Each structure stands twice: as C-alpha cells, then as structure tokens.
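Progress against Task 2.4 (sequence-to-structure conversion) is shown through the following example record, which the project officer requested during the mid-term review.
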Amino acid sequence: MPVAKKIQEAMERASWIRRMFEEGARLKKIRGEDRVFDFSLGNPCLDPPERYRNALRQCLDQPARAAHGYMPNAGYPETREAVAHDLRSRRGCAITGDHIVMTCGAAGGLNVVLKTLLNPGDEVIVLVPFFPEYLFYVENHGGRVRLVHTLEDFRLDLRAIEEALSPLTRAILLNSPNNPTGRMYSQESLGRLGALLDEASRKAGRPVYLISDEPYGDILFDGRVLPDLFRCYAHTILVNSYSKSLSIPGERLGYIAVHPDMKDAGTVLSGLTFSNRVLGFVNAPALQQRAVAAVADLKGPASEYQRRRDLLCSGLERIGYRFHWPDGAFYLFAPAPDSDEMPFVEALLQEGVLVVPGRGFGKPGYFRVAFCVDEAVIVNALPAFEKVFALYRRRS
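Structure tokens generated for the chain above:
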C-alpha cells in the first residue's frame, strides 16, 4: 500500500462535496459550462468588497518593513487588536488582542484548537448533520467523535446532548449558522446548553469546552442577529474565517478567539500559539493579516445570499419540495423525494444538476444545495429539479 492505512481508509470515506465538485468539472468539459448547474461546493460567487481590495492594494503599494517576513506565531498585534475591537463592538465583551490567535482559515483554526485541547481518547460531541471534515479534524489529534442528532427541524436536541456527555467529553463542536442545514441556534437554547456544560464540567473536574465554528456568522437572513455564545458559557472558543464574509476562501485567513473569562485562558492561548507553529501553519498569511486589519469591521453580504435563497426556495416549493428554509449561510438541506437520496442525486446529475447527498453529512435521505452561485444558475436549474421531482411523483 503506497500510503498509510489510516489515510487510505480516510480517502475511501472522504468528502462527497469534493467528489461532486470534481464530477461537475468533468461534466463542464463535456457539456459546456452553461449546461451544468453546480451546487456542490460552498465557494462564494461574489467578488470581495472594494474596501478590502483597496486595503490589499495599499499593503502592496506601501509595504511595511519586512512585510512578508515572519511575525509572532499568534499573528500581528495590530491585526489581533482589530479583530478584538470588532468582537467587542458586536458582543460587548472585554476581549483584547491578547485573546486572539490568527490562523490559516477556520479549518486551520479548528485543528489548532483540537490539538491544544485533546488527550488521546477524549471525546468531542459533533452534531448531525455535520460538516464532514470535522470527523477528520478530531481524529487528527487522537480524539473520538461522539455523534448526536439534532431535532427534526435541525434545532439543538438538548436532551440528547445531555445524555451524550460523559467523563470523556472534552468539547462540543457547534456550527451556527450551520453547514449543511442553514439553521441558526437560538440564544435561549445556547444558554441552556451552557448550563449543561457547566454542570458537566463540574462533574468531570475539568472544563468541557464549547468550540463554535462561525464562518457564516455574517450571513444571516430575515433580520436575524447572531447569538452571543460568550454570554452563555465561559469556556467558549470561537473559530472564524474571512472566507465567506469577504469572499476570499482561497486566501486562508481566520482567527481563534478565547473567552476572556475562561479559567486558565493564558495557558490555553499559549497552547494555541504553540500548536499553530508545530502543526506547520507557523503563522497566518502576512499580507492578508495586514489587509484585514484595516477592514475587520466589514459585514458579510447577507442580502445578496438572501436573494438567492428566496429565489431557490420559492422555486423548489412551487415545484412541490418541502423543507425548512435556512436561517443563514448559503445552503439548503432538504429531504429527497425517496428515503434513499442516491438515485435522486444521480437523476439530477443526468440533468446536469450537481447537489451533495445527505449521507456525506451523516444524514441519508437528504440532499444539500449550495446556493452561493450566480442567480442565473438557480433559474436555469429549476426546470431540471422539476423534471426529476415529476418523475418521482409519477412513480409514487
């Protein structure tokens, strides 16, 4: 075997998102781009905001001394303070730049957090449906995933979470607004979760951490406001990314924010900084840090994605699909017309429409549509959704 057994096994259960994306690239070469409607990958279709582009140009035109050199592993102090200032303005907490670690995107940030916290065999609660890479991130650092299903409408099932908590529980990993469901968890339910984790920490004699993955926190619909987890629980670690809010996923810039009231916050931050280095990230990209320091208060393009959500969801509802409209992010997670979603996904593929099967997110019987695409793609794909739905209706 040319690669490690663990990697071979991981590749065999690897992301359905990437599989469908690669299939879409193949089909576009055969059919032409205008005849393939790719909803597989959460790749923002919007350009970065002009203010960000201007900040980037200024960094290039007026470079600081050693602009492309190493810096502290936690990131530039001025960038960390800019991020902390934005969090203070949004959450009203006493966070400072000393509570921030700049990272290579949210994925890098999550791996840094998990490496810092996990001992071999520690459990991390992951909610179903889940972003598939979470399983690999936990396994990367010797942890074990404990899967807990959400309710039918994808809200938190607090009773199931309470039953899953054990002396081995080290953390619970949340993603809100959620990929793949678009569900945002309420402030009230998160407050109750915080109380559960307080009690679990007391019983275990060590903190159970709440890790919140928030790359879609700026993309909320219908006037919703992101709940403040720092108000809910002191052992909260936020992980965020500018990939979606600034439409720069390929630039790989994110951050970790540690609750300022966390017990032993200084030790945790030192561990995060050390892990950032020894995982090989070393530091977040220098140029992007300098640019984002000037625009850390920019909000994501929620209205642009809400328009796409409304176009897709109203069109699918008119056809006859039934689902929960997403609260945020840019994903729709809907039941397939049959309990086995794979023939349905394949039928759409034959019509040039690429969606991701729900089993890739731990939830067979569903499919995910990433609507971060040009509006024309949505409009032109709806007839194919209707054709396949009608086929299933005739069969039933």
